Amino acid sequence: MSEIKAAENKLVERRQRIFSGIQPTGTLTLGNYIGALRNFKILESEYDCLYSIVDLHAITVRQDAAELRKNCLKVMSLYLAVGLDPEKSLIYFQSHVPAHAELGWILDCYTYMGELNRMTQFKDKSAKHADNINAGLFTYPSLMAADILLYQTNLVPIGADQKQHLELARNLAERFNGVYGDTFIVPEGYFPKVGARIMSLKEPTRKMSKSDAPDTYIGILDEPNIIRKKFRSAVTDSDNSVVFDTENKPGIANLMSILSAVTGKSMDQITAEYDGRGYGVFKDAVADAVIAELEPIQARFKEINTDKAYLEEVMTKGAQRAAALASRTMLKVRRKVGLAALKL
Ligand code: ATP
Ligand code: LTN
């Protein structure tokens, strides 16, 4: 190997890898944006990133086929609209790289029922969809572990609600490595300092979620007047002080987190600026800041989402490049587990 080639390889080796995914289960919310999507862009320049639209995860809950197809393209357009560069980051649909499902199955065989039984997302979703508690919903976390481990991921940007799933991915990596020797990198989570758990506008003790009623969340694509209206009718309290107290004032604390995440202001600065001026003034200030943050993204989204040829090109290239990376891990895993090699 030439010296230059060796130096190049070393450089490539040193760059850490990021994987994350968002489910195409509806319109993305401000929670998805602050908790995950915004960090995707921030991390792009320093890491090798794979950002997937995790459509296989989405079908653990019944989806309308036409709607799902549309939502997949919408999420991809949003990835691009926040400024992700498909030349730098791999942007692709999970279902286009079958190795996710293959490793998902293999990891299922190393995951204990007890581990899956403890998952709060499974409990929440089972309660929400009592008529369809399917096996996919139960094994969802092993598939998520496969997504991450498939690419030898170092860092996973996610919101706080995904901590438990990430912990399972780490445990599975360690378990597998323990049995077969070093195979997977044990990944770390990357959580936003402020806004790792944005709450519902109507029930500020529950997380904001895109599969709840529209008045409980701010959609990334909501029109400015809708955003203002939703913030104005957000549930707060009656003591009229803008002070960060998640226990006694969850509604106001949530709005402060949103404002802090979007503007970079500290909680003390926000209190100094808005305390004593009435909740109406404060809520409008939060709305203004969010509208200003989202407007350029919405404008870019409109252009990108109608450019089907471009989206197709991005998803195809992304899937091809991701599949090539995934096959390296799969070769190793298949050999270690004892599956016969296929020589074509
Ligand atoms: P669903 O309602 O369909 O379960 P969701 O809104 O929880 O969806 P996901 O696709 O499951 O969204 O999550 C995508 C990313 O957004 C994850 O990293 C998740 O942690 C993050 N996220 C979701 N909701 C919030 C929230 N309220 N605050 C911060 N981050 C969030
Ligand atoms: N489980 C996540 C979505 C998700 C994901 C992933 C996130 C699926 N696979 C891999 C990070 C890495 C969710 O429900 N928010």
Average pLDDT for all residues: 95
Bound molecules: adenosine-5'-triphosphate, L-tryptophanamide
The CATH topology name of the largest domain reads: Rossmann fold
So how many helices?
14
Overall 3D shape: globular
CATH superfamily of the largest domain: HUPs
Q: Mind telling me the CATH class of the largest domain?
A: Alpha Beta
Taking the alpha carbons of the first and last residues, their distance comes to: 28 Å
The residue ranges in which pLDDT falls below 50 over 5 or more consecutive positions are: none
* Domain tally: 2
Number of strands: 5
Q: What fraction, in percent, of the residue positions are helical?
A: 55-70%
Strand content: 5-15%
Structural class, by secondary structure, is mainly alpha
Order of helices and strands: HEHEHHEHHHHEHEHHHHH
Sheet with the most strands? 3 strands, parallel
Gyration radius from CA atoms, angstroms: 21 Å
Provide a quick synopsis of the model.
The protein contains 14 helices and five strands.
